[in-house]
């Protein structure tokens, strides 16, 4: 049986989330489509709109933080330049500040050790700081040439270090403050500042080392943002499509871009990227890393008229095709998913394809079980054909879950020979399957605008 775990969450434009650190079951979702703030008290199973009171109906929320000062409260930044507080214990709303002419409150960040210190960034490039839990908001020193603040970050190891990303003169710009926002310094490397940023990664070993991945690839700083260097991964401009970190301790990190896979060594303060040899594909569909051996990984790719599961034994430096299944190769050109399942002394490699269903291998890809098929035609109507997502149960490597044919869900307990089929009451394509590693039988789905679903 399946249940949708965002029951009551009517918005389709959730821009921001906040979690109560004292009770992670309490989650808040901010809606940018004038539906206000939703609260869940059961970890996302059910949601209730809590802004339909005290005159705050119709809020468009763009940013939120949760503070414990002076008591447990949620601070909400709106598209009309207001900050509104929700007092969690009293379940009441009140407006704490209005920033005339500041535009939208696009970003908020809270100091992790002193939760009464909060920062807010606006759509006209202003940064405000509150030292009393959000009651008053003096304007900090203006940041020259910044038109809109898109994100804020407070460094946990040094709360006086504040980073601001925003649009300004030169495109996407990054500024840093060493004194809690009193003064700001711009990155001295304009190469980075002209690119669009997608996410920020910090080194676990060196607090001054950061990596920024974006539309133009990966950039690194080793001096806390004073200067940035482009991490050359084989092209002057590569938009990173996905990053896969090895499931094995000390294993490499893989970057997927188009028909190429790049890998780095173990997490280091300076990352060196290498393009894998022997893998010439039109598109990389999926990467699975061995949980026990950091050097082994498999890639599901699209190569026209060729078998499309590759293996590396050297951490991504070189790739070779696994053995060809007993099906004519022109029919095997698009493997969408690859899964490594281990347990009970068994290791199973699963491959899910577009049009040919599911295969498995018990010898690391040297041979493939196709259940007697010699062509792609899937005889049974109750078996998956066009695989979209796939996952194996943690407690049983023989138990496989597959999403195929847009909204159908399949379960096999014998490595893909026999299947049970379920048609779910959703309209969007299933994009992701995730079994719970701690609760056998609990499975999660992501299905486009139909949201999150769970089966127990």
Description:
The protein is mainly beta. The chain has one helix at residues 190-193; strands at residues 2-4, 14-19, 27-31, 37-40, 48-49, 61-67, 73-78, 82-87, 92-98, 105-110, 118-122, 127-130, 146-154, 162-168, 171-177, 185-186, 197-202, 210-214, 217-221, 229-231, 242-245, 253-257, 260-263, 274-275, 283-289, 297-302, 309-312, 320-321, 335-343, 346-353, 357-361, 387-392, 400-404, 408-412, 420-423, 432-435, 443-446, 452-455. The strands form 10 sheets. The chain has a 4-stranded antiparallel β-sheet with strand order 1-38-37-36, with no helix packed on it. Strands 2-3-4-5 form a 4-stranded antiparallel β-sheet, with no helix packed on it. Strands 6-7-8-9 form a 4-stranded antiparallel β-sheet, with no helix packed on it. The chain is globular and about 70 Å long. The N and C termini lie close together (7 Å).
* Mean pLDDT across all amino acids: 81
Widest β-sheet, arrangement of strands: 1-38-37-36
What is the tally of helical segments? 1
Low-confidence stretches: 188-199
Biggest sheet descriptor: 4 strands, antiparallel
**What is the helix fraction of residues, given as a range?**
under 10%
What is the secondary structure topology, with strand pairs?
Layout: E1 2-4, E2 14-19, E3 27-31, E4 37-40, E5 48-49, E6 61-67, E7 73-78, E8 82-87, E9 92-98, E10 105-110, E11 118-122, E12 127-130, E13 146-154, E14 162-168, E15 171-177, E16 185-186, H1 190-193, E17 197-202, E18 210-214, E19 217-221, E20 229-231, E21 242-245, E22 253-257, E23 260-263, E24 274-275, E25 283-289, E26 297-302, E27 309-312, E28 320-321, E29 335-343, E30 346-353, E31 357-361, E32 387-392, E33 400-404, E34 408-412, E35 420-423, E36 432-435, E37 443-446, E38 452-455
Antiparallel strand pairs: 1-38, 2-3, 3-4, 4-5, 6-7, 7-8, 8-9, 10-11, 11-12, 13-14, 14-15, 15-16, 17-18, 18-19, 19-20, 21-22, 22-23, 23-24, 25-26, 26-27, 27-28, 29-30, 30-31, 32-33, 33-34, 34-35, 36-37, 37-38
């Amino acid at each position: 049986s399946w249940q949708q775990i965002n029951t009551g969450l009517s918005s389709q434009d959730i821009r921001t989330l906040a979690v109560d650190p004292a009770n992670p079951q309490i989650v808040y979702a901010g809606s940018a489509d004038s539906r206000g703030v939703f609260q869940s008290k059961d970890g996302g199973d059910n949601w209730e709109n809590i802004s339909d009171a005290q005159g705050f109906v119709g809020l468009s929320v763009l940013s939120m933080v949760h503070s414990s000062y002076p008591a447990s409260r949620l601070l909400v930044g709106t598209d009309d330049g207001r900050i509104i507080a929700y007092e969690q214990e009293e379940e009441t709303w009140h407006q704490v500040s209005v920033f005339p002419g500041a535009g939208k409150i696009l970003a908020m960040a809270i100091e992790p050790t002193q939760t009464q210190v909060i920062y807010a960034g606006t759509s006209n490039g202003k940064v405000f700081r509150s030292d009393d839990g959000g009651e008053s908001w003096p304007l900090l020193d203006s940041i020259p040439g910044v038109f809109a603040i898109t994100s804020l970050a407070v460094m946990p190891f040094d709360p006086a270090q504040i980073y601001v990303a925003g649009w300004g003169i030169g495109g996407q710009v990054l500024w840093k403050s060493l004194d809690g926002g009193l003064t700001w310094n711009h990155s001295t490397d304009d190469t980075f500042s002209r690119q669009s940023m997608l996410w920020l990664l910090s080194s676990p070993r060196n607090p001054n080392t950061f990596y920024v991945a974006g539309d133009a690839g990966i950039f690194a700083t080793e001096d806390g943002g004073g200067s940035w260097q482009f991490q050359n991964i084989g092209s002057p401009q590569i938009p990173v499509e996905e990053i896969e970190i090895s499931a094995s301790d000390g294993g490499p990190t893989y970057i997927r871009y188009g028909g190429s896979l790049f890998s780095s060594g173990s997490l280091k303060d300076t990352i060196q990227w290498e393009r894998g040899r022997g893998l010439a594909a039109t598109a990389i569909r999926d990467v699975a890393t061995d949980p026990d051996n950091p050097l082994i990984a498999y890639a599901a790719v699209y190569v026209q008229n060729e078998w499309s599961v590759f293996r590396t034994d050297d951490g991504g430096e070189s790739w070779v095709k696994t053995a060809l299944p007993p099906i004519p190769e022109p029919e095997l050109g698009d493997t969408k998913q690859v899964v490594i399942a281990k347990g009970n002394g068994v290791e199973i490699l699963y491959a899910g394809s577009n049009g040919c269903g599911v295969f498995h291998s018990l010898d690391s890809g040297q041979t493939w079980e196709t259940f007697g098929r010699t062509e792609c035609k899937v005889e049974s109507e109750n078996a998956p054909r066009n695989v979209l997502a796939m996952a194996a149960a943690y407690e049983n490597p023989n138990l496989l879950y597959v999403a195929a044919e847009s909204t159908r869900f399949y379960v096999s307990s014998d490595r893909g020979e026999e299947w049970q089929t379920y048609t779910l009451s959703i309209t969007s394509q299933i994009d992701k399957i995730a079994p719970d590693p701690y609760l056998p039988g609990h499975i999660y789905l992501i299905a486009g605008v139909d949201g999150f679903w769970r089966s127990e």
